[in-house]
Amino acid sequence: MSTAGQVIRCKAAVAWESGKPLSIEEVEVAPPQKNEVRIKILFTSLCHTDVYFWDAKGQNPLFPRILGHEAGGIVESVGEGVTDLQPGDHVLPIFTGECKECRHCLSEESNMCDLLRINTDRGAMIHDGKSRFSINGKPIYHFLGTSTFSEYTVVHVGQVAKINPDAPLDKVCVLSCGISTGFGATVNVAKPKKGQSVAVFGLGAVGLAAAEGARVSGASRIIGVDLNPNRFEEAKKFGVTEFVNPKDHNKPVQEVIAEMTGGGVDRSVECTGSVQAMISAFECVHDGWGVAVLVGVPNKDDAFKTHPVNLLNERTLKGTFFGNYKPRSDIPAVVEKYMNKELDLDKFITHSVPFSEINKAFDYMLKGEGLRCMIRMDA
């Protein structure tokens, strides 16, 4: 029996208020409107960004809301005007989009779509400014245009990557956010040459994905920098060869790295969002050719300063968003890298819980245990 065009009743994990455990509720999911698709979510994982907005510190709180943005699923139905997706397609919903028509989408150099780039404040669909989720007729807000903590969700077609149907969704779903962000920061932006040295600041999932990018690129030395020494053992699986804990030294970590490497690393990737780490990441690269890439999201009022001579001495500072990948055009090829065993995703997934126990995933992340927790929707 087809559900196309009808309201679907299903389970969703609703955040009713800041910092309170999510509550599994029956929600109504409206059919997709113009340029939208309704997706049956099979697997979703928890990313730090979900926790940040659930905690609602330092941004506009918007509740009740269905969080979640790292996921994989199957298209259930499509709205008017959708031509490149059909029911049954395997897809990754993505927190940022690609309309394929704006100046950014038409530029080879950008993935910052004017229409669909990340918007953390928007709680409704672009088409009509309304939510597709409700409980007893009261709207529940969307999150990042994806809201994957629901058995069904509605997403703008420009935020949906169609992928190889043979790819295991419980593995490749992590490519819809954190892993692509870190991996792409290294391979697309820092671009280390074979044999070069790379420093990675922050050894969470994104930082380890950056390290994996350095490993795949043939880096000779990958130096991991983190304040938590418990992360060092795990990081060896991702190609990290040496570790520096800034707390172990009585001088700035950039000086420590410069001494270790005879003047600085060739590339650095900053994945913490701490301005101190950003300065260190920039100042630890070698003059003449060093490139530092910023990935981590800073606090609202942050700023950092460095001496202009650091730039005049031919160091480069770059920023990246979602690893410089265009969601619809580029992510399917990253999935193929996994299928061809060029990229290992299994080691990023350290925990697994049924949907009914989604709050356990939050506990793991708040305690800093593991990397990614896979949430199985059918369980």
TrEMBL record:
It comes from the Eukaryota. Keywords: Cytoplasm, Metal-binding, NAD, Oxidoreductase, Zinc. It comes from Durio zibethinus. Homodimer. Residues 205-336 form the Alcohol dehydrogenase-like C-terminal domain. This is alcohol dehydrogenase. One of its GO terms (biological process) is formaldehyde catabolic process. Its cofactor is Zn(2+). Belongs to the zinc-containing alcohol dehydrogenase family. Its EC number is 1.1.1.1. GO terms for cellular component: cytosol. InterPro entries: ADH-like_C, ADH-like_N, ADH_Zn_CS, GroES-like_sf, NAD(P)-bd_dom_sf. PROSITE patterns: ADH_ZINC. The gene is LOC111315685. GO terms for molecular function: alcohol dehydrogenase (NAD+) activity; S-(hydroxymethyl)glutathione dehydrogenase [NAD(P)+] activity; zinc ion binding. It is an enzyme of class 1 (oxidoreductase). It holds the Pfam family ADH_N. Residues 34-164 form the Alcohol dehydrogenase-like N-terminal domain. It is found in: Cytoplasm.
